[in-house]
What we know:
Elements: E1 5-9, E2 17-19, E3 25-31, E4 40-43, E5 70-73, E6 104-106, E7 111-113, E8 120-124, E9 129-132, E10 145-146, E11 172-173, H1 176-180, H2 185-195, E12 200-205, H3 208-217, E13 221-224, H4 226-234, H5 244-255, E14 263-267, H6 275-287, E15 292-295, H7 315-332, E16 337-342, H8 345-348, H9 350-362, E17 367-370, H10 376-386, E18 391-395, H11 406-412, E19 416-419, H12 424-441, H13 453-459, H14 462-471
Parallel strand pairs: 1-3, 4-5, 12-13, 12-19, 13-14, 14-15, 15-16, 16-17, 17-18, 18-19
Antiparallel strand pairs: 1-4, 2-3, 5-6, 7-8, 8-9, 10-11
Helix pairs in contact: 5-6, 6-7, 9-10
Amino acid sequence: MASFLCLTINMPETKTYEIASDKKLTVDVDVKSSKETPPLSFTTVPTTPPHTPPDDGTSSEIPGKALSPEISLESTTQLEGKSDEDLPTASTNNSETQSKTHDTLPIPTPQVHDGTKDEVVTAAADAHELQSKAEPEDALQNPTIQIEDKSDCAAIQDPINGYQDTIATSPTITNAPQAAYSLNPATRLKFKLQHTTDLIVCPGVYDGLSARIAEAVGFETLYMTGAGSTASMLGMADLGIASRDDMVRNADMIANLNSHNFELIADMDTGYGGPVTITQTVKQYIRANVAAFHIEDQVLTKRCGHLSGKKVVTNDVYLSRIRAARAAIDHEHADIQLIARTDANQQLGYDECMVRLKAARDCGADVGLLEGFKTKEEAARAVKELAPWPLLLNIVENGHSPLITVEEAREMGFRIMIFSFAGLAPAYMAMKAAYEKLRYEGITGIQGSGVGPRVLFDVCGLQDAVEVDANAGGEDYKGMI
């Protein structure tokens, strides 16, 4: 006796796969085009003669992000008098298969009970084959991910091959426990945005020491400021002078100081070129372990968002940047969060900012950022108009926007709040005061503060370095601590 299954998938075209086991089972994949993808269904169908669809020379294999949808199982049917050789091989059935859902399990391990034995065989979706006596993995080990159809930019995806036919919005994590404790910082930040309502407060950092101090204080998410990075690395003003290599190098260093303890949101300016350049930049940020980045609509010869005279590109050019960034993320199957920033408020006004941010959201941006609010009321209005899409608020004390406190931002409904100059400005003030004291009084004023080499080195991981050496059997730092 033998059995076979029919698997119905909502997709742009029909695909067929042969599943081998101790008993031959045929899987018919009936593909129907639809915006809403219902659960996949395994159900028994009568055998049909083998059929090979005509080769039209086309292919829908577009790289994309594989999903893990839910499937439902129907009981199998015994086929009397049929040997294994009598059963058809892979076939195509273009008629819609309907079944009632009984049990729901996540791919890749659906259970199929044979009608003649007390036996369970498992369907491995990624290899397209059934294996005997395998138990389904726990749902927590196979988090189910689904696409939120936020707009016309959302894609229908093939859960087996991972192909998609359009740029997709970021998948939603629906099985949260595993993501909450992920070692990947981008996945952790994504979880916070999708499964909490907390306001994520980020101090601005610009080098290794400022990042170490922020971590030691207890911040879980840091922001690498472009202005601070340019000033620290190059000693130059934020006028678009820092190159892509400068920013990637700094982000890589900061993000990997201790990626288990904090996530890094990084400035990506304009993406440093057109779609091809932006694609490469995004991939480099992903490899650098950055959790999120913002990309803006200023011209390439940009300037700090709190300087006068800013100019922005057209909306079409801006959206091409967003699409390129989204496509690069999807191609890499990454969880890095895409933050769409607009600086159009100064030149074109609030209404144009709303047009741009809504379009960026529809093309797959995970978070929005309107730079340079003119009033607190304008900030609160933006949150309401774009809800429930999360917004980031950039605070630059003594800049062009009013000061909004953490509590005020939380009440307005912002999801991320960055203080770009939280490290740079105090560092400037403290160093300037110490240098002036040394210049005019001959002392720095540090004596008696308790801050010496050991304090600074402890913040920078001295204990960890000594432990690594000792655990490896080294004696280089023995007796140092």
